[in-house]
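Pilot study result, target chain (471 residues):
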Amino acid sequence: QPSSPATSGPSSGTGVEQASTARNTLADASTDDSRACDGCPPRRVGTALLQTTVVNVLYEAGNLARGQVTARVTPATWWANVKRGWEWDLDDFVVNQIGHPYQGSNYFNAGRANGLSFWESAALTAFGSGTWEYFGETNRPSLNDFINTLLGGVALGEMSYRAAWLVRDTRATGHSRFASEFAAMAIDPLTGFNRFLSGDASRVVDKPRDLVPDGLAAATSAGIGWRRSSTPDVEPAIDPFLRIELRYGDLETGRSRAPYDGFTVDLHFGAGSTLSEARVRGRLFGRSFRDGALQVNVAQHYDFNHNNAYRFGAQSIEANVGWNRELTSRLSMRAMAWGALTALGAVDSRPPDQTPGPPPPSPGRGISVGPRFYDYGPGGNFGGVATLRRDGHPILTLAYDAYHLYVLDGVRANHLLQRARADLRIPLKGRLGMNVISEYFDRRTFFQDPSLIDAEFHFPQVRVGVTWRTN
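Predicted structure:
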């Protein structure tokens, strides 16, 4: 293309040269057929498969460095795994319910970082999880690990991929641009690495349109929580807590543009554990009816609970129906009901006449000998929530959810877990407020052996603190 008078000749200034370079960069990007948009990563299927394999190699190297004997794989162990087939493993609860989903998020984001769609990246996660189970350890391939890595990896992967794009400022330059890219890489390492490697971390472009949410809200609460249990081995306790909430996009109205264009994240720290609760709900499909008064969604759930009274985790797919109603010019009501299928749930074992807490191995009490004292199985869940809002901000939320798990591995039983929660938010000044949360957890175990006595316990807790919201 012919040069303009402003950019031709030795007298052109540095600022003009930089502007010309930026225009040329944008022009080159617009003609790159491998990109879905100027700010999108180039589509590289082969690189995505290669990087997924590299992720497995890095995890394998880390296990070898730690001296883990199961990491000493050879072609002979690979063939043995193929011949022996699947099992239920005995890993720690946190490893299975957080560690494997996080590893799966690395596979998923290897796809997203290389221009693959949500569903293509989900398939890549299955590839990464399957190859790890057969070839990454000397243990037999684990069915529960495969499911947790796949479904949990998709949920945590797309959530972290979109959260990183919230931090990334693709119109900035210089130190602020580097800081935003570096912070985003801490949230989504694979995409951040690829951007620095390819030079995308310094390209001045608009963000991909489908990664710009229709709305965004966040809140942080901190305070003191009191909890007790109906069983004597869990002492009443008072501990500090921290809660972080994020609402990305609009899950309550409109037609979904892409999976996870709307999702919520709820994290709780404290209550006898560093991370006591993590919940992610991402919309896969959604549509409004009656001018937005009625909303129907299909969503994915990731649940994790870990405290000194109980442990529970699940991967679910739900259908929900929501109703929106304006009460006054300042007050509105939102209600939602859902039913879901739990692909795999985990809950700590409860042998008869045993109180909560990790029980010792006891073959005569229905517990299988081994280091894992929690049960696995599929099931279903249902629940509902109603929220009263003032000027668009929640002031009172009432929620109930129930999970049923049919145990396939562990103590042969049916578990019914129910939780009711009331969340009161009192505005104080501006974005500052007071938060009071009351929760009641009820857990019942019905053993399949008629000679065993069913188990039941309750776990109430109350948390009081201050809250700060972004808008």
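One observation from the pilot: The longest helix spans residues 143-167. A full batch analysis is planned for the follow-on phase.
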